[in-house]
Amino acid sequence: MRRPHKIHFSGCVIGQCLGDALGVLREGWPREDCEVYVAGPLRSWLQGQLDENAWSGQYTDDSQLARELIQSFVDCGEFNPADYAKRIDAIFVEDRIVGRGMTPHHAAMRLAADLSWDEAGTPAPAAGNGSAMRAGPIGLMFGDVRHVVQAAYNQGRITHQDPRASAGAVAIAIAVHLALRSKTIDPPAFVSQLAEFTATVDEGFAQSLRQLSGFLELSMNEAVDRIAVLGLEPGAKSDWNRISPFVIPSVIWSLYAFLNSPDDYAAAISTAIRVGGDVDTTAAMTIKPRRVIDGLNAQLASLIM
Predict the structure, then answer these.
(1) What CATH number is given to the structural domain containing 193?
(2) Which residues are annotated as a binding site for Mg(2+)?
(3) What is the C-alpha separation between 169 and 92, in angstroms, rounded?
(4) Could you report the per-residue pLDDT of 199-236, keeping only the tens digit for each?
């Protein structure tokens, strides 16, 4: 295994921006429309066949807050939750945020009112994916996985105090940590490791996550039906068509998309988007393996920045 290089940080955030911008064009749309989009414009763009002047994708708060997390780490030389909280506060108060989520917005307003970083987060049952969507870079910041868990947990608590949201942030950060350090991905072992670390934060999330290995053996249609209701009370239904912003199904669907095509980023983000729902975030959270990040270059960055 090797330590991440600065190209991995840039590749991680570029890949996140790409998934975010590709997904936001169909955020909240039903599955049927997303399938048409994936089979048509998205495929053409990924194959370089769509006129980039006609492209209107835009990265959103998912990627902005991940970028601020990296910038805080660079400026402080470490993960400093108080500094990161100030950056979250500023980007909302100064109205620089794109597509603001209401849970982070309310936390930012509390930060602006001088609450400390560890008091401002919205308490349970606010368990959206806002803390997980920005957690990927944490997986690159530390060699010791225990430090990854603690930093992912703390950065998430700034906006979300619900342990399920914290567990989702840990799952994404650990997934990035493992993917960048592995030559090959063994899905059952990968899932087992993720569940082991998320269980330290929320056992219920870990129980849902442990089912992912079995879902990988199903068709996509069967898998999304199972994943979309994870963490819900028996008989409960989501207001969203397919994958909602609820942290458990959205994080696990992103992991499903990655593990279903661990060496094909285009296929992975297509899977993340094609089922409908909160697809900008599921695509943004879809993990980029080491081979993909190593190959991201200035040409790709110029298409989305």
Answers:
(1) 1.10.4080.10
(2) 60-62, 278, 280-281
(3) 20
(4) 999 999 999 999 999 999 999 999 999 999 999 987 77
Q: How far is CA 296 from the centre of its chain?
A: 18
1: in domain: no
d(CA 75, CA 55): 33
Supply the range of the domain harboring residue 204: 6-48+60-230+239-304
Q: Is residue 53 part of a domain?
A: no
Residues annotated within the binding site are 60-62, 278, 280-281
In a domain, 15, yes or no: yes
Q: Where are the alpha helices (DSSP H) in the chain?
A: 6-24, 31-37, 43-46, 61-76, 81-93, 102-112, 138-141, 145-157, 163-179, 187-198, 203-210, 212-215, 220-227, 247-260, 265-274, 279-285, 290-295, 298-304
Distance from C-alpha of 82 to C-alpha of 73, rounded to nearest angstrom? 11
Q: What is the pLDDT of residues 67-108, one digit of tens each?
A: 999 999 999 999 999 999 999 999 999 999 998 889 999 999
Q: How far apart are CA 274 and CA 269, in angstroms?
A: 9
Domain total for the chain?
1
DSSP 101-117: -HHHHHHHHHHHTT--T
